[in-house]
Amino acid sequence: MSTDTVEVQEEKKVKAPSEPLLSKRRKQIVKDPLSEDNPITIQVLGICSALAITIKMEPTIVMSIAVIFVIVFSNLIISVMRNLIPGRVRIIVQLAVIATLVTLVSEVLKAYYFDMYKVLGAFVGLIITNCIVMGRLEAFAMANKPYDSILDGLGSGFGYAWIILVVAFFRELFGSGSVLNFKVFEAIGWDSFPTNGLMVDSIGAFMVLGILIWIQRTKTGYVEH
Amino acid sequence: MQRSNTYIIIFSIVLTVILGGLLSLASVGLKPAQEKQIELDTKKKILGAVMDISGIKDPNELLSLYEERVESVVVDIEGNKVTEDEKGNPVIAEKVNIQKNSRFDKEERLYPVYMFKKEDGSIGAYIFPMFGKGLWDWISGYMALDSDLNTIKGIAFDHKAETPGLGARITSNEIQDRFVDKKIFNSDGELVAVSMVKGEGHPSLTVHEVDGMSGATLTGKGVNNMLKDYLECYKPFIEKVQSGEASLALN
């Protein structure tokens, strides 16, 4: 992560003043966390929520949107303020911004999507402690311009989202026999599909996630040193 | 870069004021919508205890159905009707906060009872709200008893923070349907309530037992305690109605 920042800064010095809105470098900012530098499968961050809320697809989608919103906007806000934030209290400032955004999300959910608010309960609040969010602020937004930070937030957010959605898909399919609450197996006439209780449990999430990490690291050739 | 302490303090204060202000604004602005959601949620649970409302998507339709079919009364521990509090303000069942009341002594609590009317206006079910402790935080329930005040017609649970997939299953139809047709009085007329057994998949259960939830025994225990506690509290009212004494509740 820290190498990213250094590279970007070096590039800035040589780069012409007007960079295209979607230059190669910027595309890379978005693309990297989707696969090669994925927050969950490569950096192994944000695991707790990935385990907790992936029992069904619907709450997972809401959670993804919430996390993307929080990452993008906290990245933007911190990046805008980056030259004002005193170094010694920067972590507290980051936390305050994240906590404010998360509380906003939680309040809006409570007002307009009450059922989901009840399902997600504490986990929306726990986005505050999601290491991905703070990791991005500290590693990227503190040293980069607002637009780049938004892109970085989008990349990390979607990198997180697609992984938990895949996990949720398999867990709901095998654990509850449905996809987005639609009973797939009953629909194709297989009424006696044996649902797997393990998938409903957090252990199921560990297993699905483990397999995902395995597949992904085989593909990208990433090895932990 | 190193900044002076004064700068840091001023920066922190300004940031706190801005963020705090934002949150207060959001909280005040969203309050009406949230309260409406909570009211809707309560009425949904009351209706959900007696009928399948999953087909009704429009909130207004739900509210008008509630208006039309549900009557309510508030009773005390002795089963007497309460119409006003000590200060003389009228007591409305829907406004009684069960969570708040559950913190008082049993004798001082207010107990709302909802009556669900059939098409012809006669009472089809009595709905009793209850409140208790699950594994992590509160759980609550609305138990609907048939007009004999013995057979469970339906039940709707809610919870704050039970584990999804384990304790949180109490909100699923799968679990709630297990309570249907169970009885709260035994053949001698004693109140025994119903209880969830430990473990899941029991082949033969009595009319007072409900199949448990595997992996959520403690939530099940919380449910059992809640049902027992609150049915005890409602018992005087139930007996009054059964003996015909409390038809006064319906005027």
Protein architecture, described:
The complex is a heterodimer of chains A (225) and B (251). With 225 residues, chain A is an all-alpha fold. Chain A is built from twelve helices and two strands; from the N terminus they run αααααααααββααα. A two-stranded antiparallel ribbon of chain A has the order 1-2. In chain A, helix 4 packs parallel to helix 8 and helix 4 packs antiparallel against helix 9. Chain A is globular. Chain B has a five-stranded antiparallel sheet, with helices on both faces. The radius of gyration of chain B is 22 Å and the shape is globular. The mean pLDDT of chain B is 85. The chains are: A mainly alpha (225), B alpha+beta (251). Chains A and B meet through helix 5 and helix 6 of A and helix 1 of B.
Order of helices and strands of chain B: HHEHEEEEHEEH
Widest sheet of chain A: strand order? 1-2
Low-confidence stretches of chain B: none
Count of DSSP strands of chain A? 2
Beta-strand percentage range of chain A = under 5%
Oligomer: heterodimer
Chain pair forming the biggest interface = A-B, 32 and 30 residues
Helix vs. strand class of chain A: mainly alpha
Mean pLDDT of chain A: 82
Biggest pleated sheet of chain A? 2 strands, antiparallel
| Separation, N- and C-terminal Cα atoms of chain B | 76 Å
Give the mean pLDDT of chain B. Answer: 85
